[in-house]
Structure formats: structure tokens, C-alpha cells
Please model this.
Amino acid sequence: MTNYDQTLDVKGAKCPMPLVKSRKAIGELPVGQVLQVISTDRGSVADFQGWAKTAKNVELIEQETVQEGNQELYIHYLKRTA
Amino acid sequence: MTTHSASCDALQIQTEQAPLRSYPVTERVLLAAQPRVDDWAQFVAQGYTTVLNIRGDAERAVLQRANAEAAGLRYIHAPWPAYELEPEHLAAFAAVMEAPETGRLVFHCRSATRVGLIWMLYRMVHQGWSREQAEAELRAAGYDDEAMETFAFCADDFCERCGVDGR
Model:
């Protein structure tokens, strides 16, 4: 698991909420720090990959899937790069 | 980086096998989630002439274009970012709406939420609708409370960033 500096819990939120909330959170993070985003939206896996490809200040470091009870959590680690 | 190609593929298959979720906001415009392959011919049969896809995946768009055009539809791929909608994206959408060749439009993303948000902001920014009017139209088209909450949050974000009166 990647080390991170802050966590954003967007469980229950669906596209585009996880991305919009993460973009706001990354904007408040110092450059170089890592944000862990916890989502229940399966589509967030591709959405965060797409964001990292086009955004100028974000690097997607890792994504992982974790089982929590009867639901899957999609966890994304994003570094603010600029 | 841990990859998720298997789960993404599975999600794509599930999305494209599910019945089409769609919201007719006007007689001319249908807001829709990801269409299935056999939906293209159905759109033509219903009188739609153009498809506007705002999803980011270019490879999928190439395949979709082939299927949609084979069915007789015009196809436009505009991969507008989900994380940060800008006034230029609304202007591009307005240009599509105003183009005579557009005709009746199917406007789609993955879940039909982003297209609902863009439609709401288009009504407010380009057509002078109040937020209340724009929200009422989406609700009348069938969007649920969860979607309306998403529209409200994302519209606030857009209006704050872009200096738009969001009332």
C-alpha cells in the first residue's frame, strides 16, 4: 500500500462526484503530497486513469481494490505534482 | 501501479449489456448512459440523427463511431473532462446544439449523469434558464434524488470556479 498524506472518503458518490471532490482536495494539498481516495464506484477506476492522463498537476501512483463487508472499495492514490 | 484492466473490461461489458438508461429532456434531445451495440439502430428508428459521446476512451469511440455510422447516425466524440468542466465545453456543446446538421441528438456518457449536468449548465449559461427551471426539467425527465444531488454539487463547483451566477 502506498503511503499517503490525506484521505478523501467518497463512498456512495457516483461519477463525476469522486473526480470533482478529488480535484478540489488535490488543489488544497501541498505539491508532492499524496491523496488517498476511497470510492465505491467501479467506474472510478477508469475515471481516475483518464483524469491522470489529461490533468497537469496529478500523478496516479496506485489503484487497488479492497473488499469491505459485502462491497468493494476502489482506492486511488494521487500525488499533486504541480 | 496496480492495474485494473480485468475489472475495467468487466465493468465495460456489464455497462454495455445493461438496458439503456435514458432521459428525454426534450423531443429533440435524449440524455443517455452508455448505449449497447443494438441501440444505434433503435435510435435511428426513433428519429435521432446525431450521437455526441463525451467519454474519454478514444479506442471505444472508434468502435462506437463505426457502429453508429453503419446504422446511419452522425457521430461526434468530444472527450470533455469529468473532473473539471469549463465554459469552453459548454460553448462547444452549444455549437453542436445550434448546428443545423445535428438534428435530433443522443447525448451520452457512461451513466447519463455528466450529460445531465452539462445540459443543466447549458440551459442556465446559454439559454438564461434559472437553476430551479433547469433542475425541474431534469427531474421531470426522470433523474432521481441522487443524481439531482450530484448536479447541485457539481453546478456549484462550476459556478464558483467560472464566476457564473448559479441561481
